[in-house]
Specification:
Layout (H helix, E strand, L loop, with lengths): L1 H4 L4 E6 L3 E7 L4 E4 L8 E4 L10 E7 L1 H11 L4 E8 L2 H12 L7 E4 L5 E7 L5 E6 L10 H7 L2 E6 L6 H8 L6 E4 L3 H4 L3 H8 L4 E5 H9 L9 H5 L1 H9 L5 E5 L5 E4 L4 E4 L15 H15 L4 H16 L14
Parallel strand pairs: 1-6, 1-10, 2-8, 6-7, 10-11, 11-12, 12-13
Antiparallel strand pairs: 2-5, 3-4, 8-9, 13-14, 14-15
């Protein structure tokens, strides 16, 4: 089957995580401003020992690469997913959802004796969320020789959060010379620090993080450790610092404050499309939607980052109005 598919040309192959999102909605979480730690500026607190009332529970398909693959396929691109699930009912459900969204699942590994990853997502009254992640089968993702060959038949490789032996996966991804790499890393990668990631960043076409993640990455670069909070609050400083690490372009998202792009020549800011608070379902997966749509927009509009940003903002706004990471996504038939 793989030999037959070697003649296929993909617009995108997404690489990374698949989880089931189990979302709990509660009005009892308290937002806390934390001025003592620049890396943990906003916290959600619950009374110790209390029984927290849950208003609603939902089960959704999720995970960074999974969300991106569905988003890209909905936008009309030929998309495959390279990921790992367990040989369980949840894994079957994840694969079914991908197929229903026209994502090629031939690169999804089904691992015996492993459990499909899942995330407990706690959503508070402001519709913000905190996620507790169990990686499960995601921790055993690897790229075989055949899969590495398959990646040469993609125009873009979209890489999201990785776990387990993630460096081996990245080594295989960044050894593909014929594909552009869009990278939206996870906490495991960012905690390794700028020095550790530099060799990958130099080969990245577009690097995408949220503002908190950008701060974490820049602080890990030694020469910025003595900078004050004012320096890190300025998004342009973060964009410039990350651009110095090597990627061709950098995107930093900042929730309702919009998103910024820098390619070494132009700083560009895009404002968020305002969604009335009463219409916001939750923020789960909105970052994945924005990042995947931005890369899709670059492909649609021949590299025009301004048009790509506007499209990404529109799709993110639609995603906000529906619960779960994949509901409400725009569909474009080519």
């Amino acid at each position: 089957m793989f030999l037959c598919s070697m003649n296929m040309k993909y617009d995108f192959i997404a690489v990374g995580g698949v989880v089931e999102d189990i979302t709990f909605y509660t009005g009892e979480g308290v937002m806390i401003d934390n001025k003592d730690d620049i890396l943990k500026q906003r916290l959600v607190g619950f009374e110790l020992g209390a029984k927290i009332r849950i208003e609603d529970v939902n089960h959704f398909s999720g995970g960074g690469a999974n969300n991106a693959a569905v988003c890209l396929a909905r936008l009309g691109f030929k998309t495959a997913l390279l990921a790992a699930v367990g040989e369980d009912e949840t894994g079957k459900k994840m694969i079914k959802n991908l197929s229903e969204n026209q994502v090629d699942t031939r690169l999804v590994k089904v691992l015996k004796n492993e459990e499909t990853g899942f995330t407990f997502v706690v959503i508070n009254k402001n519709r913000e969320h905190v996620a507790f992640v169990y990686r499960g089968a995601n921790s055993f993702l690897e790229v075989t020789k055949i899969e590495a060959q398959m990646m040469h038949y993609a125009k873009w490789l979209y890489v999201s959060s990785l776990s387990g032996d993630w460096e081996k996966v990245l080594d295989k991804v960044f050894s593909v010379k014929d594909a552009l790499v869009a990278w939206n890393p996870g906490n495991v990668q960012l905690s390794a620090g700028a020095g550790h990631l530099r060799k990958y960043l130099k080969k990245t076409a577009v690097f995408m993080v949220n503002k908190d993640e950008a701060i974490e990455l820049v602080i890990s670069e030694g020469k910025y450790k003595k900078e004050d909070k004012k320096f890190f609050d300025e998004t342009k400083n973060l964009l410039a610092a990350i651009k110095e690490l090597g990627p061709d372009g950098v995107v930093i998202t900042d929730g309702g404050n919009g998103a910024d792009y820098y390619d070494g020549e132009e700083f560009y800011h895009a404002a968020s499309l305002r969604v009335p608070e009463s219409k916001i379902a939750d923020t789960t997966g909105v970052g994945d939607t924005f990042c995947a749509t931005f890369i899709a927009g670059l492909e649609m509009y021949e590299g025009d980052h301004k048009k790509a940003m506007k499209l990404a903002m529109k799709n993110a706004a639609e995603n906000l109005k529906q619960p779960g990471a994949q509901n409400g996504l725009m569909t474009i038939k080519k």
